Amino acid sequence: MLSDVIERALAEDLAGGDVTSAAAVAEEERAIARAVARSPLVVCGGALFARTFYRVDPGLRVEERLADGTRAQPGDVLWIVEGSARAILMAERTALNFTQRLAGVATLTRRYVDAVPAGAKLRIADTRKTTPGLRFLERYAVRIGGGYNHRDCLGSAVLIKDNHIVAAGGVRPAIERARAHAPHTSRLEIEVESLEQLDEALAAGAEIVLLDNFEPDALQAAVERARGRALVEVSGGLTLDRVKQLGALGVDVASVGALTHSAPAADISLDIERIGGAE
Fold first, then answer.
1. Which residues are designated catalytic?
2. Whole-model pTM?
3. Which of 28, 123, 135, 189 has the most CB atoms less than 10 A away?
């Protein structure tokens, strides 16, 4: 799967070759390039970075200076590439696009994880709000940032959402039908939008309740009602400021779509230095 992603990305960028490098840089020119952090970030995507360069030219040499998961500061060198200057220039943008995206996700995830109060059981989890075709990479970045992955796809877990409830005719029938047909290894999770729906879900035997967009007072009441009866997950516009509150309340999971749909790209540049070739 990783090879396919790299192939598609390179084909997108090199469909017509690299006319600038071919025109301006002699074939025998050699260079060394350093990938440098320009802002504080969590390193992520080293293997993808290296494999992108190797796909363009197997003769390049890529050295990892900081491992995935490391906190980097501005000026830190993350990876070094040495070899054909043309090949480095051809792979540069694709490799940086990958790593800037993944490091951005990992960095934002680490900020959420760091905001969890000491001793709290709260887990920071992602959602399925990912870039089509890149979910496995973005989920990897969430883990590198210290977060957890929610269900990977529709076939991996039972999660009854608002539209399922409407289509099934209510909370109880949705849970009863899911219990009758779901694999015995699956726990039943249901999204609720009010305390009334929560009570109905708990009475019907829901094992995980997802509290969506609850106001603070209703959220506290919901956590107290569910305590000892079901795991509590919270979602809906979860900012860093709310993480401390959720941890103090005893919430089990905070699912944060922003980790993947709104993470800003990390600032990483590739600085190239000529080391020999044509005069």
1. 93, 129, 161, 191, 212
2. 0.94
3. 189
